């Protein structure tokens, strides 16, 4: 009896509604926009295919002679509106700064007042939401408030 009633209700619901075909392709992005600075020939916003990696970005932006890729994971997947600073080997002040977008756990531990738990939280945040788009976004990570951010902001870069 329940089955018959359920089928009857489903038929009433289906016959009373209007159905529209949804084109799922309209929700898929055909490209992502990534901003790149630092040791590249072409700085600024670059359009890439979805799921592009840092390696794909660098092939489009071109590397400058002083680019330092030693701290980068070239297989990192980029997201729309990511911002990435490619480190350089020059005497630029950034050489002493740690990239919150590309540093691994050991690199993040070099930032003063960042312990292992907070460093892992930074990595987890990047994995879930993509690269940081502004230094201030670091305060979205649990364990980093305004005071800690103010203390470390000169020691970090994107």
UniProtKB/TrEMBL annotation:
Gene Ontology terms: biological process: DNA repair
MF annotations from Gene Ontology: DNA binding
Residue span, Helix-hairpin-helix DNA-binding motif class domain: 106-125, 136-155
InterPro entries, alphabetized: Competence_ComEA_HhH (IPR004509), Endo/Exo/Phosphatase_dom_1 (IPR051675), Hlx-hairpin-Hlx_DNA-bd_motif (IPR003583), RuvA_2-like (IPR010994)
UniProt xrefs under PANTHER family: ENDONUCLEASE/EXONUCLEASE/PHOSPHATASE FAMILY DOMAIN-CONTAINING PROTEIN 1 (PTHR21180), ENDONUCLEASE_EXONUCLEASE_PHOSPHATASE FAMILY DOMAIN-CONTAINING PROTEIN 1 (PTHR21180:SF32)
Protein name: ComEA protein
Lineage of origin: Bacteria, Bacillati, Bacillota, Erysipelotrichia, Erysipelotrichales
